[in-house]
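CORE FACILITY INTAKE
Project code: CF-77B
Contact: R.S. (postdoc)
Sample description: multi-component assembly, three entities in total
Requested service: structural model of the whole complex
Turnaround: standard
Below are the sequence entries exactly as provided by the requester. Do not edit them.
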Amino acid sequence: MRFVDEFRDAEKARALSARITSLCEPGRQYKFMEVCGGHTHTIYKHGLEDYLPEGVSLVHGPGCPVCVIPMGRLDDAIAIAEQPDVIMTTFGDMMRVPGGRGSFFDSKAAGADIRMVYSPLDSLKIAQQNPDKQVVFMAIGFETTAPSTAMTVLRAKADGLDNFSIFCNHVTIIPAIKAILDSPDLRLDGFLGPGHVSTVIGCRPYEFISAVHRKPLVCAGFEPLDILQSVAMLLEQLHEGRCEVENQYTRVVPWAGNHKALQVINEVMELRPYFEWRGLGFISHSALKVRDEYAAFDAEKIFPVPGVRVADPKACQCGEVLKGVIKPWECKVFGTACTPETPIGTCMVSSEGACAAYYNFGRFTRERVRVAMTQ
Amino acid sequence: MCLGIPGEVVELYPDRRDLAKVDVSGVRRAINIGLLEDEDVQPGDWVLIHVGFALSKIDEEEAAAALAFLEGIGQAYDDELAALADSLIE
Amino acid sequence: MTPEQQVQAGWAEEAVREAALHEEEDATCPVGQEHLTKEQQVLQRIEAARQRKPKVKEERITLAHGAGGKATHTLVEALFLEAFRNPLLEALEDQAVLGLGGARIAFTTDSYVVSPIFFPGGDIGDLAVNGTVNDLAMSGARPLYLSCGFILEEGFPVADLERIAASMAAAAQRAGVSIVTGDTKVVQRGKADGCFINTSGVGLLERPVELGAHRCRPGDAIIVSGPIGDHGVTIMLARGELDIESDVESDTAPLHGLVSALLDAVPDGVRAMRDATRGGVATILNEMAKASNVAVILEEDKVPVRPEVNGACEILGIDPLYVACEGRFVTVVAGEAADDALGALRSQPGGEGAAVIGRIKDDPPGLVLLKTGFGGTRIVDMLVGDPLPRIC
């Protein structure tokens, strides 16, 4: 696959690995946060940690939009799905996320019409094909996905659909990063910036991170070589005493972002005064809701929504994992009470969740495995 | 949800200017290119696809430059490469 | 929204309490834990949790129970095996090998609920015959006789049924089996999505082979008979919901010919064979790693996958290792027999794409490890959930 395979080349990986090692000060421990769940997934899926020296560790961040949805909000979605004549449509990831009394998957088994879609446009199609039903799209994601949802709403309006709405749970990345920076628990040396979010918002919004908080940020792509190169770029900055925002993912990310995408988000949505993030608490101006002008497409205005807050289970440490304070295996219920089959928290369910990635891909002792992997 | 895949635009739809057919390794799907309306997307262009929408046009020159740079690093570290490869394989 | 109340998720508290109880039981025998790092201790605790007797926690059947992955295995072990327990069933192979009046018979059954019924490369009828023929062939038996039971929905077009029957007849002829008995039931509209088929089959095990997932040994080679994931991707695309076009076709095919060639070439060298249906190659390898208590080391670069299958999987974010096939099998053979085994498969129609994809090692037992194309390592666990319902 073009633009993919070349960035998975093992030869170049070894070269980058050597460069990374040479840029590390002996004895110094470097901690970089990879904000985006997509990065977490790539790192584990390709076994990237094998290419990083002992002194460099990658800490997982809150950039997993499924992971940050609090249980109460999912209960609201399920309440909508269980209304008569509603078809709830959602990305596959959300199917197994547990709410206060079960997941979409469980609701579906009990009779609710909940369908997996690949794109909000598929949801629109279902609405067109089922005029006697109310079709709701569970809209999740950061700024990467919000434009697509917004475009779909505009399309619904243009097509004159009266049976389509979205349950808007889009969140924004900058407040999440701010929450990390303001957290006293964490000592980070730099950030791997979310590559796909940046195609929409550009690289400028991250400038406060280097200017004010004095941490370098490299906007990183999602193939293994992209991540390794970004780590190298961060180390170079530290080595050279620089502190700035750089773009590694230049083949996809324009520095100024996508103006049309931002426009479209702004047309259909606006910032909520505050929103609850699982594990991070209430953050102001961190999530989007549908504007009044588009109320006809806002599921929260059409359906009764319980709005009850569900406390995270006491044993659940998703919050600490999302902030990078602990590694997945350091959570007390990791792998025992909380597994991908029987998840307690969101980090274990989402394909981008750190716990899921570690459990599914990284759950082995490196030294023992090194013997097995070689002749 | 950050899943973005590069795909090649193979066909445009004259009656729907916001759609295009893309090819990913021989698999084809119509996607919405409305977010790139200022970019004049043409067959042969490569775009980043996310949940059925094109988010960005892939800059082929930048991609080539990135790979060339990585290639360059490879040559410069030839010896260290061999040494490191040994220590990794143990 | 500022919610006034706050409630607890009862199920979560319960799950944590239960897990803590189990941990106390496990912790009563910690041998030499001190030298392990914290992470290693956690991993060990998790292994202990995974070894525990399976229990069905759900109150209702979900689609995951039919996906061929963890939930299916748990259901079979905790519910069906518990209820029916006997030595023949406990082997939990694709078929049961019975002694009947001096002869060794392989006996199997399978039900087909694929949606859509007709798809590129075949239909439910092809699956119904080939699937059961293959389950028999996996034991080394010669497939001979099939039964078929139909559950038809009121309103199902007779023309479609004729088409399915014709497919079954053709497939049976190709596979050298006869359909010798059957049954037909009709249920009301809405109670059975079109057409469900069950086929049971018997075959004669004339070769003196003893195969089983528990027979894998360190040094063995793992071979797959061709490119993986074709069937699952075909079905997914054929459903039309994803608006994706492609030339991929189902790989449904009878495997007894390939199996014969393999067993002729290396009669003593084959340890196990399983056809890669629901759950994909990854699931089979996990079953073998667990049953034989060995490590399976896979090489991503060596696993054959068609570019279109890869493309479709990338778009949807699924892993071809978990996608169903209907005409491919995985075999574990003695290391020294690998070349001959591969040669035998490649010389047969349908086996041209056969490849060695990995090796068996002794440590770490029970795990399937993948050397990624990139050169890193990760594990390949058993399928959780159900990415593609009603594949076969």
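Facility notes:
- The CA atoms of residues 153 and 190 of chain C lie 7 Å apart.
- The radius of gyration of chain C is 22 Å.
Invoice: internal transfer
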